[in-house]
Write a structure and sequence with these properties.
The structure holds 2 protein chains of 2 kinds. By secondary structure, chain A is mostly beta strands. Chain A is 10% helix and 51% strand. Chain A is built from 2 helices and 19 strands. Chain A has a 5-stranded mixed β-sheet with strand order 4-10-9-6-7, with no helix packed on it. Chain A is elongated and about 55 Å long. Chain B is mainly α. Helix content of chain B is 74%, strand content 4%. Chain B is built from 9 helices and 3 strands, in the order H-H-E-H-H-H-H-H-E-H-E-H. Chain B has helices at residues 2-28, 35-58, 65-98, 102-125, 128-140, 147-172, 175-203, 226-235, 243-261, and strands at 61-63, 213-216, 240-242. A two-stranded antiparallel ribbon of chain B has the order 2-3. In chain B, helix 1 packs antiparallel against helix 4, helix 1 (2-28) packs parallel to helix 6 and helix 1 (2-28) packs parallel to helix 8. Chain B starts with a helix and ends in a 17-residue tail after the last helix. The chains are: A mainly beta, B mainly alpha. The interface between A and B is large, with 44 and 59 residues.
Chain lengths: 247, 278
């Protein structure tokens, strides 16, 4: 019995070591939770809605660095998500993939993308070349930038927001489609607050979590679609919302 | 729900087949008392897969693509090694069995304890992590719908049930037939696993020729059809197969089948020309 137990232990340890050794990484990176860091925007999140006929990304321009594609299968077929890089003049090199996304389920694909152009493919039915979308990573499309290059966030304007816990002040009310805005929240409430931007479809376009009392948090958002956006300050149960009309 | 059911079935089928053959073999050769190592391996693989799957699903940890493919590809090739060992181990002990050299059989079984644990561990663990990631994503979706988790669980349960039926069927046929058929089945399974591992390494860019397809029958055998699922689940058949994958498959299948079918070598240490009584 003792021998058997130790074999299991051996197997478990070997498995753990193997996984740890080949790169289980924390995708939040550094910066989240500090409240004042702009790297929250760099650790990008792209919501992908994958149906049997379409593959919709909530944004196609990203900052270089770690990006999480949150894929939701809204169709009836099993799907997969591939990120392809350029090989010669065609997008055939697999940068990363996630398989077995069952209907009604969501899977995350986290990948570190150096600046450049990529194709994202949804593969409903797990076959063929998939439904492709082109994404651009990094500032100015400089494909030569190395993975370690820090891309300076570029924005059209800065919007300074503040909250005292009961309301949001400083909301601009209106903005133009295509504007890239840095939203900066000063937290004058007593507890930590999270700033979140939602697009008209309700998708999270940007977020900075746990801004400490007395601190500030910034998040860079491109207003890609016209419609009613929402600036949300979260704290526990009650969300504060400031409307933002993009036209 | 049906699509999720088919993934569950596909991911569980190969492991169920290999484990049921191992169990049937031990029971048939009168060593039901040696089943513990098999179940130990299975339990360890399930626990470890579910644990890591949960870690990757519910925390911000993730596995890089390279790690994921290296893990899948390497484990597949290791699995081929162990299944091949299992085929010839069963063949050898079978011969001892027919000669009624029980002492030798027991010695072989004793040597095999660790190997039994590892074989069943890898048979289940090979696809275990991917299956558990799929299962946890279905669990996560229960807020919106219980269909995915229901489908996935029923699929896995069906795989286990089919494994059980296979075991029941295997108990009925005689030993000689059992060895021939399970041996052949295992060789096909192992060849498929090898091809799959090669494809994984091609996807990771570690081996070339990902886009050089030997054939593509995705039109006639869609991967998400029930028959595509069964072929993939048992033989690891991929409708779009690369040349390298096909070559690896043949390069394993042909020599191993020849070795398996070669007449039993005469046992040098056989004490007397005891005629087999059967």
């Amino acid at each position: 019995m003792a021998a058997r137990g130790s074999i299991v232990l051996l197997g478990a340890t070997a498995g753990a070591a193997l996984l740890a050794g080949c790169g289980v990484t924390d995708s939040t990176g550094t910066g989240t939770g500090t409240g004042t860091s702009t790297s929250a925007a760099a650790a990008g999140r792209v919501a992908v809605s994958a149906s049997d006929r379409a593959c919709q990304l909530d944004r196609t321009t990203l900052e270089a660095g770690s990006t999480t594609f949150a894929v939701r299968n809204t169709g009836s077929k099993v799907t997969e998500l591939y990120v392809y890089g350029k090989q010669g003049d065609a997008f055939t090199k697999i940068v990363s993939e996630v398989e077995n996304i069952g209907p009604g389920t969501s899977r995350d694909l986290t990948v570190s993308l150096p600046a450049g152009t990529y194709e994202v493919a949804c593969k409903p039915g797990q076959t063929g070349n998939g439904i492709r979308a082109t994404i651009t990573v990094g500032g100015g499309g400089s494909a030569s930038a190395s993975p370690t290059t820090q891309v300076t966030p570029r924005y059209d304007r800065e919007v300074e927001l503040a909250t005292d816990g009961s309301r949001i002040s400083g909301g601009p009310g209106r903005a133009k489609v295509g504007e890239v805005i840095e939203f900066k929240l000063s937290n004058r409430a007593t507890g930590p607050r999270t700033l979140e931007l939602k697009d008209p479809a309700g998708g999270v376009a940007g977020e900075v979590a746990d801004i400490k009392p007395g601190g500030t948090g910034e998040v860079l958002v491109k207003l890609s679609k016209p419609g009613e956006w929402q600036i949300i300050v979260e704290a526990g149960k009650k969300d504060l919302i400031s409307a933002l009309t993009v036209s | 729900m049906f699509a999720n059911y088919l993934i569950g079935l596909r991911e569980g089928l190969e492991a169920a087949l290999v484990v049921s053959i191992l169990v049937a073999y031990l029971v048939k050769s009168g060593h039901a008392d040696r089943l513990a190592p098999v179940w130990t391996g299975v339990a360890a693989a399930v626990a470890l897969s579910l644990g890591f799957g949960a870690l990757l699903t519910f925390t911000s940890n993730h596995l890089s693509f390279e790690a994921q493919e290296a893990f899948g590809g390497t484990l597949s090739i290791v699995a081929v090694g162990f299944v091949t060992w299992m085929i010839f181990w069963m063949r050898r002990t079978a011969r001892h069995l027919s000669r009624e050299l029980r002492g030798r059989l027991d010695a072989a079984l004793a040597m095999g304890t660790t190997a039994l644990v590892v074989t069943s561990f890898i048979a289940v663990g090979r696809e275990g992590l991917e299956t558990s990631l799929f299962l946890w994503s279905a669990v996560q979706a229960t807020g919106q719908s219980t269909q995915p988790v229901l489908g996935a669980s029923l699929g896995l349960l069906t795989a286990v049930a089919l494994g059980y039926l296979f075991y029941k069927g295997a108990l009925r046929i005689n030993l000689a037939k059992f060895f021939t058929w399970t041996g052949a089945a295992l060789i096909l399974v192992a060849a498929g696993v090898l091809g799959y591992g090669v494809h994984d390494l091609q996807e990771a860019g570690l081996l070339p020729g990902l886009h050089a397809l030997a054939f593509d029958v995705s039109g006639t055998i869609p991967p998400d059809s029930w028959y595509g699922t069964l072929l993939r689940g048992t033989l690891n058949f991929t409708p779009a197969t690369t040349w390298l994958q096909a070559l690896a498959w043949l390069g394993y299948l042909l020599p191993v089948t020849l070795l398996f079918l070669r007449p039993a070598a005469k046992a040098p240490a056989a004490p007397a020309p005891v005629t087999a009584t059967s």
